[in-house]
Structures are given as C-alpha cells and as structure tokens.
C-alpha cells in the first residue's frame, strides 16, 4: 500500500494562536506542593518556587496556565489563599480527599506565572459558591478602584492589579463526582448571572462556560444546548474536556483516539452554531479544550493511596512510546480544528499538563520528560511529531 500526502500553502484552516500549547496546574497531588512550590528544595527561590521546574516551564514557552482547578475549584474559597500565610486555614479538600494548606493561592500563583512567562486562565467556584464570590475575585485580581477587594489586594502587598483576562465559569458541573454538581438548566442560570457580574466588574475579560465533562456523559449535547441557550450572549467560549488511555491494551483503538477528539470538537461546534441560529445572533461561540491528556496508567495505584495527606502522589502516570504517538495525534487534531478551538478571536487554548514533556526541536521546545528521574523520554518520536507540526 502506498500513501500520498498533498500539501497546499493556499489551503489554510486558520492562523494558530500560541495558546494552543497551554497548560494546567491544579491543587491535586504534587502538582503544586512538591511540584512548582517546595520551599525546602535546594533550587527553591525566595518565594519557595522550585527554579528547576520554573526553568523547564520557561523553556517550554507555556503561554497560558489554567488554575486552580479542576475538581478542586468547586469547593475552594479563594480568600483562603491570600494574605498572611501564618493565618491561612488548613482545610479538608474534598475533591481529591487531601489536606490543603493554602500556602499557595492566587497571591503566589500570579507571581509564579509572571516568572514563568505565562498568562493565567483563572477558574471560579460555581459549586459551593456563586456570582458574588466570583465578581469579588475579579475585583481583587483586576480592579484599580478604591473599593474593598481591590484594597484588600493592596493591603496584601500588591499595588498593581494582576490583569487576568481569561476565566472559567466553574468546572465539569455536570459530573456527579463534582462538588455541588448541577443540572444543565441550574448551571446555565448561574453561569449567566455570574458572567454578567464578572463582566460588569471588568468588561475586558473573556469567559469560558462549562461544557460536558467528557464525550460519554449521558447529558452530552443536551447539556451544551441548554447552557448555551441560557448564557449565550454573556460568554465567549464553551469548554471541552476528555482524557484518553489504553486500559484494555487495545493499541488499534488507542491510536485512533484522535478520531474521537475530532468528532467531539465538531459536534460541540455544531451545537454552538445551532444555538446561534436560534438566537439570530451575530456572535460566534468558539471552543476551549481546556482539559485533555493521556491518563490511565496511575488509576489503580491511586486507589491505594491513603486519604487526607498533604500533596499525596496522585495521577503520576509514567508514559511510553505508544502514549507519545497518541499525544502527538491529539495535538495535530487540535491544530486541524484551530478555526473553532479558539480563545481570542480565532485562536486556540487547549491545555496539556506541562509536566508531561520537554524536548528541543528547532527553535521551540516540546516533548516528553520523565519527571521521576529527570531524563529525556522517547526523544526520537517526539522530535518526529513536533517537526511535522512546524514544517
């Protein structure tokens, strides 16, 4: 069998925004404590950030990082991570059954992102909290007014606003595992009202509404329709989440994961356009694929980890050659849909956890990095995949 590839410089899907190479840092496992932040580590700077990790993130040119979750955000009080560290509460974190010390919050993370050369994609809690707490957080982060939460930021040592422009309206609110999950109508209403208050506080921000937690959710498609009907004119994007794996050792099906991703993207885009026509709107809602990755290797071992620890070793998959090929095909699928997987105008912002990779290819840095022993992993495959994307 002979394969042929035809390339035309005139057949352009869209311009690709660099945010398609975005990332995700959640208060989950050792991503924060022991990951980006470890004051006792030999490479820690004056704020406790690990500079060895920082250097890797900087070399990867990560343009945007979603924070603080994830499932974590649906039970999180953002005020707990501000001000004097000695007065911050130590709490039970229900999403991952861990202990949250609150040593790191938005005060610290905005500085970490600045040093890493990344923007922040900030998520608000629409599980245990709602519109009022969300608009207060926008004021704290972005306002220059002489008002309570902006003054609270100044009292905490930050005269200038953080200037966070991209925000998520909750996380996976259709999932029964989510703290205070909601029906499509319940979520659509709270997302609409939260969006209004947040944009009244700072009209320059962009908002991402929650789509289905994954393509196999029983309410998939109906969730998107209902949510969009409620908040279409107040949001800018709707999210997609999906994780891929090979727990049944079916290589053929696993290697075809990108087919499912492509179908997912096109179905959600079609629903956005359907609601646009219903509303006779001039506005196009694009897609934020802000959680995706390979995730299955650690599923069984995570069940054995005792609960209520600080920074337990959760979700620490060790990847192989097969995973590298699938990851590359998923990224190519996102690039092939960059006309709809977008953030600002027609540019993309899907997120991949940065601790998966690192490899030098041409003038940019990509790849898979073994975080356990700090060694290159499958560099020849990564180079082939990434070189194909840059030609």
Describe it for me?
- The chain is of the alpha/beta class and 391 residues long.
- The protein has one domain: Glycosidases (TIM Barrel, Alpha-Beta Barrel).
- The chain has eleven helices and 13 strands.
- The protein has helices at 51-59, 106-116, 131-142, 148-155, 184-201, 222-231, 251-255, 257-279, 299-302, 321-336, 379-390; strands at residues 23-24, 64-67, 91-93, 98-100, 119-124, 166-169, 206-209, 237-244, 286-294, 359-361, 364-366, 369-370, 375-376.
- The strands form four sheets. The protein has a seven-stranded parallel beta sheet. Strands 3-4 form a two-stranded antiparallel sheet.
- Helix 6 links the parallel strand 7 (206-209) and strand 8 (237-244).
- The longest helix has 23 residues, at 257-279.
- The model is unreliable at 343-374 (pLDDT under 50).
Characteristics of this structure?
single chain; 391 residues; alpha/beta; TIM Barrel; seven-stranded parallel beta sheet; two-stranded antiparallel sheet; 11 helices; 13 strands; 14% strand
